[in-house]
Amino acid sequence: MLSSRIRRWTSIVALASIACCAAGFAQAAGDEPFLDRFSAVKLVASTVPANGDVNPYGIAVVHRSIGELHRGHVLVSNFNNSANLQGTGTTIVQLAPDGSTSVFAHLDSAGIASSCPGGIGLTTALSILDSGWVVVGSLPSPTGQSANAGAGCLLVIDKDGHFAESLVGDGINGPWDMTAFDDGDQAALFVTNVLNGNVTKGSPHVVDEGTVIRIDLALPDMPGGIPRRISTTIIGSGFAQTADPNALVIGPTGLALSWDGTLYLADSLGNRIAAIPDALTRRSSASTGRTVSQGGALNDPLGLAAAPNGNLIAANGADGNLVEVSPGGKQVAVKTVETAFGAGSLFGLAIEPHGRGIYFVDDGDNTVKKFTSP
User: Fold this and answer.
1) Is-cis flag, bond preceding 97, omega within 30?
2) Neighbours of 230 (CB within 10 A)
3) What single string gives the DSSP state of each residue in 188-241?
4) In the prediction, which pLDDT does 345 show?
5) How far apart are CA 235 and CA 53, in angstroms?
6) Parallel, antiparallel, or unpaired for β 74-80 and 91-95?
7) What is the pLDDT of residue 28?
8) Are 93 and 75 in contact (CB under 8 A)?
9) Which residues of 146-181 are buried (b: 16+ CB within 10 A; e: fewer)?
10) 142 and 124 Cβ atoms separated by less than 8 Å
11) Which of 18, 150, 305, 374 maximizes the CB count within 10 A of its CB?
């Protein structure tokens, strides 16, 4: 089964490579940095639902209308509850481009919490599969302190916002961010983990045990079926991680999958963007990967997204800037998108459909904003 899945994924990646390169030749002559297309920051909506959850972390764009998911809207996961305790947020909010909002999922029932070690605290790890399955990470802490953080899980939610199952253990330990590759009847989840080792034993206390895992899923082809985990592979390891009173934990965060199967990662404590080759098919760890870009305008990179021009967009945690980095490592553009609160405001980000802008969460005022044209 594994070999056939690899052959199919390899074929898809090869076709994507041809399409990407053909498009690249057309725009190579005068292509400008993706960030240079935009100059305005516009408020989309507040991310605070009726229960008062705050601290938006994860964000993902809905690309297909199905069930309660609406194409062109975005989902946002909240990490804190109304008392602003980290690792206690339980809601995923859906925001429309016109600013209207609704609660897509509320995940605080006792039954759900008992199947996720430590409870519920929704992280930046948020992905939407084409079939309508939503997967979100949980890194819970009932007290809001890193010393009480639990291993957590991945929560699988159906198209109508109902909890379906938990993915627990087997490499899942503090799922912090995620991206996904969807192949119709199968999918691969790429997940960063930040609780390995004795990372919660105090701050500053850096432990080089952060990981990136690939979880291969079989997706149901019948009504009533749920995704099934086939295997888990550690494809990256040895990343620095530490407990932090302001962020609960700091470690490997944002992920972006390139057309050629390279997985790019925001290595927060290393202040760099790293690359893991052959992420879809590799069967062993690439350690901490190859350094693509380090330092310069990067300042605690957290969120990461692949831009339509093939570059990477990183959201800095230590200032209010977005940084554009080419696959070759050149930092080609820097844009300030958050000035009211600055450090600690940016986390997850996502590219708007058709490249019309960049959605980003603003933890400073609990909103989603868009970097776009005036």
Assistant:
1) no
2) 15
3) EEEEEE---SSTTS-SS--EEEEEEEEEEEEPP-STT---EEEEEEEEEEEEEE
4) 95
5) 33
6) antiparallel
7) 38
8) yes
9) beebbbbbbbbbbbebebebbbbeebbbbbbbbbbb
10) no
11) 305
Looking at the whole model, is its pTM more than 0.90? yes
CATH number of 279's domain: 2.120.10.30
- Specify the 3-state DSSP secondary structure of 114: coil
Which structural domain range is residue 101 located in?
2-372
CA–CA separation, 269 and 239 (whole Å)? 8
Main-chain dihedrals φ then ψ at residue 312, nearest 5 degrees? -115, 140
Q: ω into residue 204 within 30 of 0, thus cis?
A: yes
Q: For residue 3, count CB atoms less than 10 angstroms from its CB and return exposed for 0-12, middle for 13-18, buried for 19 or more.
A: exposed
Residue-wise pLDDT tens digits, 84-106: 999 999 999 999 999 999 999 99
Residue 285, both tokens: 């760890």
Q: Is 188 helix (H, G, I), strand (E, B) or coil?
A: strand
Q: Which amino acid is at 182?
A: D
> Which parts of the chain have pLDDT scores under 70?
1-30, 202-204
Tally of domains within the chain: 1
